[in-house]
Amino acid sequence: MATFIASGGRVWRKFVKTFPLGSNLSLKRSPTSALANGRLSSTSSENVLVSKDEKSGIATVRMNNPPVNSLNTALLLSLRSCFEELEKDKSCRALILTSNKPKVFCAGLDILELYQKSPDYVGQFWEKVQDMWLSLYGSRLVTMAAINGHSPAGGCLLSLACDYRIMAEGNFVIGLNETQLDLVAPFWLRQMMVDAIGYRQAEMALMVGALYPSNKALQLGLVDKLVPIEDVQTVAEEEVKNWLKIPDQARAITKMASRKPLLDELRKRKQEDIQTFRDETTRESVQLSIQQYLDKLKAKK
Ligand SMILES: CCCCCCCC/C=C\C/C=C/C(=O)SCCNC(=O)CCNC(=O)[C@H](O)C(C)(C)COP(=O)(O)OP(=O)(O)OC[C@H]1O[C@@H](n2cnc3c(N)ncnc32)[C@H](O)[C@@H]1OP(=O)(O)O
């Protein structure tokens, strides 16, 4: 269903579309955004909320998968559909990725999707991670991560796939802590880390599964800017507008020139990467580590 809503001088396109597994992509206004002046509508089952300002062509994509935006199958499918939808939309020029629930941007992969599942299940799950990443990392749009909270592991993956990262100041962490779960970050994720912070720092960070507080992440270059949490969205919009002063075509071609080798490498090695993931995550010792990690998370309370 697609309708157009004119409000406050801006035209808002609103549609609610059902994606596989019942997840929804809907265009709606964000309560805190300076771009937001459309009509608000919501249902509790929507795991991705999208608002787009037609005038500027800037879309804000809010992950909305309580309590911590863990990347389960449904959220991965919704994110991919959403990225692809915006990619096809010729009037869309930029995408801001953020969380609808401040304080947690994304808790990474849903660990329960990796626990006590069949090899086929985890293989299919991993392919959804790969496909979501391919659509975000390979996007022609300006992509901006508005990291308004914790961003471990898969949250860091999402952030690294964007062109620019703005993070909330304060007691929030970001990084690739996979080794702490006895998991090994795949080559394409490791490469993004190397590209962001350099070989030596990435090598150390990956080996020890480091999670950095936001000020250390800024110092390392893992994020590009720190702002108070309440300003993350506004600053992201301002930053996007600066990026949009550059002609789209030249910017997008330049981006593709630098990202194509890694995109192509994963496309070529997709099945091998899935096989490795299947074999590793279903290994008994890894399952035990995942179980212990889950227990640790629960015991936190
Ligand atoms: C040789 C090759 C091998 C290939 C293998 C490849 C492996 C894949 C490699 C890379 C990709 C990425 C991997 C991952 O993303 S793994 C997930 C890692 N994530 C984490 O370690 C984060 C864990 N969570 C937290 O640290 C915290 O929850 C927080 C800081 C994000 C938020 O803290 P807080 O607000 O205090 O919330 P709670 O901790 O209380 O959590 C609420 C609730 O949610 C549950 N939960 C949290 N995170 C996850 C998660 N990632 N998956 C599933 N469930 C999660 C938590 O247990 C609580 O549940 P409740 O007790 O039932 O309420």
Automatic annotation (TrEMBL):
Single GO term (MF): delta(3)-delta(2)-enoyl-CoA isomerase activity
Subcellular location: Mitochondrion matrix
Reactions catalysed according to its record: (3Z)-dodecenoyl-CoA = (2E)-dodecenoyl-CoA; (2E)-tetradecenoyl-CoA = (3Z)-tetradecenoyl-CoA; (3Z)-decenoyl-CoA = (2E)-decenoyl-CoA; (3Z)-hexenoyl-CoA = (2E)-hexenoyl-CoA
InterPro entries attached to this UniProt entry: ClpP/crotonase-like_dom_sf, Enoyl-CoA_hyd/isom_CS, Enoyl-CoA_hydra/iso
Keywords: Acetylation, Fatty acid metabolism, Isomerase, Lipid metabolism, Mitochondrion, Transit peptide
Listed GO biological process terms: fatty acid beta-oxidation
Superkingdom, taxonomy of origin: Eukaryota
Pfam family, one: ECH_1
A Gene Ontology cellular-component term: mitochondrion
Primary location recorded for the protein, binned into one broad class: mitochondrion
Pathway(s) per entry: Lipid metabolism; fatty acid beta-oxidation
SUPFAM superfamilies: ClpP/crotonase (SSF52096)
Assembly with partners or alone: Homotrimer.
Family: Belongs to the enoyl-CoA hydratase/isomerase family.
General function of this protein: Key enzyme of fatty acid beta-oxidation. Able to isomerize both 3-cis (3Z) and 3-trans (3E) double bonds into the 2-trans (2E) form in a range of enoyl-CoA species, with a preference for (3Z)-enoyl-CoAs over (3E)-enoyl-CoAs. The catalytic efficiency of this enzyme is not affected by the fatty acyl chain length.
Protein name as it appears in the record: Enoyl-CoA delta isomerase 1, mitochondrial
Source organism (scientific name): Branchiostoma floridae (Florida lancelet)
